[in-house]
Amino acid sequence: MSDKEFLEFNKKGWNNLAKSNKPFSNTSLPEYGPFMANEDKLQLFKNIKGKSVLELGCASGNSLKYLALKGAKEVVGIDISEEQIKKAKSLNIPNAKFWVSPMEENPGIPINHFDYVLSLYSLGFSANPIKTLKLASSYLKSGGTFIMCWIHPFFNCLGIENNKLIITHNYNDESKKVITKGTDQIKLLQYNLKISTIVNSLITNGFEISQLIEEEPLSKNGIGDYHSTYWDPKKLESSPTTLIIVACKK
Ligand SMILES: C[S@@+](CC[C@H](N)C(=O)[O-])C[C@H]1O[C@@H](n2cnc3c(N)ncnc32)[C@H](O)[C@@H]1O
């Protein structure tokens, strides 16, 4: 499958998810992911006042709205799904600009410009996450901060069989996989990279790693609002759900 076919597959899936209007996860600020500590605790954007921020895979714009309300002076979002961007535009965020585009390309976003680039549960949906990390670096000014959150690679390896915790994925296997999302079981393609692949690619693209965050899940005793055994309590007891990497462009 070519990158073009990968992107067409995911664009269709995300448009359908957006149109279904069904909630599927906690991946908008102030949340950093299911069962994950939120911005009130982590304070990764405590200096956002007067700053510019670009979000890769901004979805319906809720994270950018949150940052605008916290005092960001410029918020820009890029998303492959025109349905998501329609919703983002309807929020009428002041000083916001949105692009319908795959994040593997620069549709005209200024380079060496942003104080922050955010990727909140979007990088693994890129057809080429390494190219996307290179672009993320290009958008930041020197001293700017990249914040990326994705499924913790250890959590992703865990599964449940006969009520027992087992390893269902090979950590070494970085090939793309089809996953299903939401109550309508919409199919999407996803990459789950090793921590070393992401960190080494950030270093190669001019970043210094400032922080790796692997918080224990806030609750470990139930699936809560999530209609998926993906968030099984035994998995929640055994691993962080989300890996956050904070990196500074040199
Ligand atoms: C889990 S959502 C991110 C949620 C977002 N952080 C928020 O605040 O709501 C992932 C988003 O990435 C977008 N996406 C997936 N693949 C993409 C790609 N290759 N380029 C740009 N956006 C993409 C999807 O359309 C979707 O809106």
Task: Give a structural overview.
The chain has 250 residues and is α/β, with parallel strands linked by helices. It has a domain of 148 residues: Rossmann fold, CATH 3.40.50. The chain is 28% helix and 27% strand. It has eight helices and eleven strands. The longest helix is centred in the N-terminal third of the chain and has 18 residues. The chain is globular, with a radius of gyration of 17 Å. It starts with a helix and ends with a strand. The structure holds S-adenosylmethionine (SAM). The site of S-adenosylmethionine has 25 residues, from helix 1, helix 3 and strand 2.
List the helices and strands and how they pair.
Elements: H1 3-20, H2 39-42, E1 52-56, H3 62-69, E2 74-79, H4 82-90, E3 96-100, E4 114-120, H5 129-139, E5 140-151, H6 153-157, E6 158-161, E7 164-167, E8 177-181, E9 186-190, H7 195-204, E10 207-213, H8 233-238, E11 242-249
Parallel strand pairs: 1-2, 1-4, 2-3, 4-5
Antiparallel strand pairs: 5-11, 6-7, 8-9, 10-11
Bound molecules: S-adenosylmethionine.
Order of helices and strands: HHEHEHEEHEHEEEEHEHE
Strand content: 25-35%
CATH superfamily of the domain at 3-11 and 48-103 and 110-153 and 193-222 and 241-249: Vaccinia Virus protein VP39
Major β-sheet profile: 7 strands, mixed
Strand order of the largest sheet: 3-2-1-4-5-11-10
The CATH architecture category of the domain at 3-11 and 48-103 and 110-153 and 193-222 and 241-249 equals 3-Layer(aba) Sandwich
CATH topology of the domain at 3-11 and 48-103 and 110-153 and 193-222 and 241-249: Rossmann fold
Residues in helix, %: 25-40%
**Unreliable residue stretches:** none
Number of helical stretches of at least 4 residues: 8
Q: So what's the overall shape?
A: globular
